Fold this sequence. Notes:
The protein is of the alpha+beta class. Helix content is about 20%, strand content about 30%. It has two helices and four strands, in the order H-E-E-H-E-E. A four-stranded antiparallel sheet has the order 1-2-4-3. Strand 1 (about 25-30) and strand 2 (about 35-45) form a beta hairpin. The mean pLDDT is about 90.
Amino acid sequence: QMKDGSMFGQLDKFLDEDFFSQHKEFEFDTIYDSYQVEVFSVYVTTTDFNYIETEFSNDEEYMDFLGVIKEKSKIQTDIQVTEKDNIITLSTCNDLQDPEDGRLVLHGKLTKTN
């Protein structure tokens, strides 16, 4: 927990439409691959919502989840995300909704660039 904002400290800036429009894509590198990330959802929530859900029993369940997180987004995008896509979720502590359990969440669609 980085209270000073250094870890993903920029995330809450994504709630600002101008900032979002200028930063809706970024590079994400692992030791194996490089990815292009297209941000398709950003919102404030609490830990009551399982925004880091990764286990889905079928495509429909995953599509439902994608629908929910797109709907939650403070900024609407026209990025298409389907059950074939992989996504990345970033989150940081945020006290806009709750000082203890508040989170700012950002979801992006991953596309391999190499």
